Amino acid sequence: MNDIVSFNTNLPDNMEDLSRFVLIGREKYTAVRAEIRAIDKLKLAEEVRNQKNEEATMLAEALLDAEARLGELFKKIPKAVNQYKSAADSDVDSKTKKEVVENLGFSQKQAERFETLAENPDIVEYVKAEARENGEFPTRARVLELASEKNKQEDVRIPEEPDESMDLKSQVYTELSKIHELIADFEITPHRMEALRDNFDAVIRPDDHICYMNESIDKLQKIRLEIYHTEKSRQQELIKIFGL
C-alpha cells in the first residue's frame, strides 16, 4: 500500500507507468473498501477502521490525480495517427489515439473521462476536500457530475427579454428526451456494477438509493401509461378517419 500512496505527490511522468498505477490502484482501492465492510460487519476496533478509511481516502485521492494526469497526456495525442514511442521499445510506432488508449488498458469512454478530470483540476481538488469533510471517499463520478453541471451553467444564455410564452409541450418533451439519453448512456457491465456496489457503505446507504429509484420508476410508469394511452387514441382516430 505504501508504494501506491507515495505516488500521491510524485506521480509517474509517462503513460505506461501512470496506466499501471491506475489499473493496479483501482483493484487495491476495491480491496481496501472490502476490508472496511468486513471490519464493520465484524465490529472490530474503531482505530482499525479509521486506519483503513485513511488508507482508502489517500488511495482514492492519488487515483484521481493519476487519472487527471493521464487525461492531460491523452489530450496531447492526435486522434488520427500519433508518433508514439513506447518506453519498452526504442522504435517509434505510428498509432491512432484509440490504439494507444486501448493498448494501455482503457476504453475510449474512460479516456474521455480522464480528459474531463484534466480539464477541471479545481473540481478535482474540491471533491477531495468535500469528501474528507463529509467523511466519504472522493470519486471520479462526483468530479464528472460537477463538471457537467459547470458546463451546463456556462452554456446557459439568458435572453434580453425572457419569453414568458414558452411552449410547455416542447419543454416537457425536451426534458423527457434528456432522461432517455441519460439512461441510454449509462453503461451496465460487470465491472461497473462491481464499482457501484463498492460505493455503498455506512455513509452512503443503499436503501436511500433504492427509495429514490422506486420514485423514479413510478414516474416513468406514469409517463409510459400516458404515452400508451396517447398512442391508442391516435390509432383509434386513424381507424375512424381512414377505416383502417
Query: Helix and strand string, N-terminal first?
Result: HHHEEHHHHHHH
Instruction: Give the tally of β-strands.
Output: 2
Mean pLDDT level: 78
Assess the beta-strand content as a share of residues: under 5%
Please, how many helices?
A: 10
Based on CA atoms alone, the radius of gyration comes out at 24 Å
Helix content class:
over 70%
Would you identify the regions where 5 or more consecutive residues have pLDDT less than 50? 1-8, 82-92, 158-162
Shape: globular
The strands making up the biggest β-sheet line up spatially as 1-2
Q: What separation lies between the terminal Cα atoms?
A: 71 Å
The largest β sheet comes out as: 2 strands, antiparallel
Class of secondary structure makeup:
mainly alpha
Q: How many structural domains in the coordinates?
A: 1
Account of the protein in words:
The chain has 244 residues and is mostly helical. It contains 10 helices and 2 strands; from the N terminus they run αααββααααααα. It has helices spanning 2-5, 15-42, 46-75, 97-103, 108-119, 121-134, 140-155, 168-185, 190-197, 206-242; strands at 82-85, 92-95. Strands 1-2 form a two-stranded antiparallel sheet. Strand 1 (82-85) and strand 2 form a beta hairpin. Helix 2 runs antiparallel to helix 3 (46-75) and helix 3 (46-75) runs antiparallel to helix 6. It is globular and about 75 Å long. The termini are far apart.
Distinctive features:
2 strands, mainly alpha, two-stranded antiparallel sheet, disordered N terminus, 10 helices
Give a brief outline of the structure.
This protein has one domain (2-157, 167-204). The chain contains ten helices and two strands; from the N terminus they run αααββααααααα.
